[in-house]
């Protein structure tokens, strides 16, 4: 057990709120494209499912290069705004515009439409990296107290829950406001609304963290990127935490990509996307304080195992939906949502611990390196989930279409939707539980943090 650091800088409520509001960006950009982009391409732009999945995944390859660089650059940044906040502002000037253009393109279909969406989505991913990598590095530098970081991140997760509810329900509701399944015009309206939410969130975090305390010494030279990647690879706790996070993110991204198809073809109601999403993320707002207490009682690893088991059991049980009905799907997603809330909180709290212990051991500011690698791989894995689901649809014989030329899907495609929504994600989540058993943070190996004052 890590003991709290004596004399750790206090994080004011205003800074906690200011930091937390940036999670509207994290949750919204994670939820809306993951929820709607694949469906938008296959059912409105007549893009084949395999190609649509590739379009969602391909721009994220760029993240594997960009995110570690952004992390390194932010570690080396010295300015009157601090090392991280200039990057938050750069992201705020980029992401909202690019996101709007993803859904507001020229009248293209098929391969040309896929190329256009892919280019705009790559620009959006770039803007997201500029904001998200430094943003995730900040908690480890705001305080050196083990449990204070969990409390700080509780605010982040509360905002993630609120943002996920708003974006996950609002975006599909806007899309479906002009009829089941929506229209091209309703998708554009949704894109403009979500772009405004992104902009307000990112600017709110930029201004809200102006008085955030900083711990850890700057490292202006930053070292060679290869050396810093080697340092991250040499941190067993970081590598195991990254591995289980990748498994969890793959499952979550598959379920997000599958949700509109699950609502339309398994439940027979495209508008159910909003209520399914509400069932998934609603518990995040209600159960977060419970997970904070469980993290103290069971330690973070024990609480993560419990959260993963709840997540996996609920996902697997959703396979029975066709035999029982829509109400059952919503109940199972409530169980999934409880586990998902714990997974999200503990994942980022454990990441902050790993970063803080590394800083205490080395005396260097390398939070950007760790979060850059983390965000790059996490982003790629998130898109990989959509790619896998697109491949499952193609193997099941799913037929692409346009709004004015609907098609009837074969039974094999309906089965593929259920497999991609429940069976495969459940197996991946149970694998992440086994990975959690390998996670070890060894604070005794690092020198204790010096008391301030």
Automatic annotation (TrEMBL):
<feature type="transmembrane region" description="Helical">
    <location>
        <begin position="21"/>
        <end position="41"/>
    </location>
</feature>
<feature type="transmembrane region" description="Helical">
    <location>
        <begin position="152"/>
        <end position="175"/>
    </location>
</feature>
<dbReference type="InterPro" id="IPR036259">
    <property type="entry name" value="MFS_trans_sf"/>
</dbReference>
<keyword id="KW-1133">Transmembrane helix</keyword>
<feature type="transmembrane region" description="Helical">
    <location>
        <begin position="413"/>
        <end position="434"/>
    </location>
</feature>
<feature type="transmembrane region" description="Helical">
    <location>
        <begin position="334"/>
        <end position="357"/>
    </location>
</feature>
<feature type="transmembrane region" description="Helical">
    <location>
        <begin position="187"/>
        <end position="207"/>
    </location>
</feature>
<keyword id="KW-0472">Membrane</keyword>
<feature type="transmembrane region" description="Helical">
    <location>
        <begin position="87"/>
        <end position="105"/>
    </location>
</feature>
<dbReference type="Pfam" id="PF13347">
    <property type="entry name" value="MFS_2"/>
</dbReference>
<feature type="transmembrane region" description="Helical">
    <location>
        <begin position="238"/>
        <end position="263"/>
    </location>
</feature>
<feature type="transmembrane region" description="Helical">
    <location>
        <begin position="47"/>
        <end position="66"/>
    </location>
</feature>
<feature type="transmembrane region" description="Helical">
    <location>
        <begin position="111"/>
        <end position="131"/>
    </location>
</feature>
<feature type="transmembrane region" description="Helical">
    <location>
        <begin position="304"/>
        <end position="328"/>
    </location>
</feature>
<feature type="transmembrane region" description="Helical">
    <location>
        <begin position="275"/>
        <end position="292"/>
    </location>
</feature>
<keyword id="KW-0812">Transmembrane</keyword>
<feature type="transmembrane region" description="Helical">
    <location>
        <begin position="369"/>
        <end position="393"/>
    </location>
</feature>
<dbReference type="InterPro" id="IPR039672">
    <property type="entry name" value="MFS_2"/>
</dbReference>
<protein>
    <submittedName>
        <fullName>MFS transporter</fullName>
    </submittedName>
</protein>
């Amino acid at each position: 057990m890590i003991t709290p650091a004596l004399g750790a800088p206090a994080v004011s409520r205003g800074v906690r709120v200011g930091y937390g509001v940036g999670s509207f960006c994290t949750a919204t950009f994670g939820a809306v494209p993951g929820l709607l982009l694949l469906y938008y391409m296959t059912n409105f732009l007549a893009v084949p499912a395999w190609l649509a999945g590739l379009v969602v995944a391909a721009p994220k390859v760029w993240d594997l290069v960009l995110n570690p660089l952004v992390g390194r650059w932010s570690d080396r940044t010295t300015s009157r705004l601090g090392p991280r906040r200039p990057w938050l502002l750069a992201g705020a000037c980029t992401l909202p515009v690019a996101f709007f253009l993803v859904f507001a393109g020229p009248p293209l279909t098929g391969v040309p439409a896929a190329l256009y969406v892919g280019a705009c989505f790559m620009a959006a991913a770039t803007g997201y990296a500029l904001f998200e990598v430094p943003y995730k590095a900040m908690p480890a530098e705001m305080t050196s107290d083990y449990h204070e970081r969990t409390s700080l991140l509780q605010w982040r997760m509360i905002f993630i829950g609120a943002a996920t509810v708003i974006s996950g329900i609002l975006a599909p509701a806007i899309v479906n406001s002009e009829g089941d399944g929506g229209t091209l015009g309703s998708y554009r309206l949704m894109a403009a609304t979500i772009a405004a939410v992104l902009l307000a969130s990112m600017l709110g975090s930029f201004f809200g963290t102006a008085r955030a305390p900083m711990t850890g010494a700057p490292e202006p030279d930053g070292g060679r990127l290869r050396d810093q990647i080697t340092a991250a690879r040499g941190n067993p706790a970081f590598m195991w935490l990254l591995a289980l996070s990748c498994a969890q993110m793959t499952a979550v991204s598959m379920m997000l990509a599958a949700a509109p198809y699950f609502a339309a073809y398994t439940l027979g109601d495209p508008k159910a996307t909003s209520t399914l999403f509400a069932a998934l993320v609603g518990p995040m707002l209600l159960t977060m304080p419970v997970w904070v207490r469980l993290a103290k009682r069971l330690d973070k690893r024990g609480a993560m195992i419990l959260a993963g088991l709840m997540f996996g059991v609920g996902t697997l049980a959703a396979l029975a939906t066709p035999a029982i009905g829509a109400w059952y799907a919503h109940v199972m997603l409530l169980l999934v949502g409880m586990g998902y809330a714990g997974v999200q909180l503990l994942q980022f709290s454990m990441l902050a611990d790993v970063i803080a212990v590394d800083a205490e051991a080395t005396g260097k500011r390398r939070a950007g390196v760790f979060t850059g690698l983390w965000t790059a791989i996490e982003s790629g894995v998130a898109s990989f989930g959509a790619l896998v689901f697109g491949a499952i649809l193609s193997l099941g014989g799913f037929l692409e279409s346009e709004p004015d030329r609907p098609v009837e899907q074969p039974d094999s495609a309906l089965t593929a939707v259920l497999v991609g929504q429940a069976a495969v994600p459940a197996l991946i989540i149970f694998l992440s539980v086994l990975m959690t058993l390998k996670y070890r943070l060894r604070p005794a190996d690092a020198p204790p943090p010096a008391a301030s004052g």
